[in-house]
Write a structure and sequence with these properties.
With 141 residues, this protein is α+β, with helices and mostly antiparallel strands. It has 2 helices and 7 strands, in the order H-E-E-E-E-H-E-E-E. Strands 1, 2, 3, 4, 5, 6 and 7 form a 7-stranded mixed beta sheet that branches. The mean pLDDT is 93.
Amino acid sequence: MTVIQYIRDFIKTCPYLDEYHQGIGVDYLREDATAYMIESVPADPIVKKYTDGGSIRQFAFNFSSREPYGSDVLENLDNIGFFEHFSEWLEIWTDSGDFPVMNENQVPLSIQATTSGYLFNNELDKAQYVIQCNFKYKQEA
């Protein structure tokens, strides 16, 4: 399993995702609201190397959603509030350290939001919101 696939499967378990979503895209965000996407972003994959050949690695990514959008303040607050809850959910997992099993030689260490959720792009009746995240894991030799 690839790292991005692991992250996608992990995020699918988030209780704050819209129950009617059609899945989580990878590098593609569907036009209809509500939709979700994970996209990788440039980052040095190796954080630390060990003499035994193992390493601490990272995978930086954006998690995006397309949501209904307009002049309704409560709807827009709800949209951005999702990312606050999502960030807290990631923090709980990192604090517990009880991540789902990854690959045989990879051990998850942390997953966190590195920014607040923010409005990235808007149209007349829908908008894309983004939160930047970082996943760290140990790659054993």
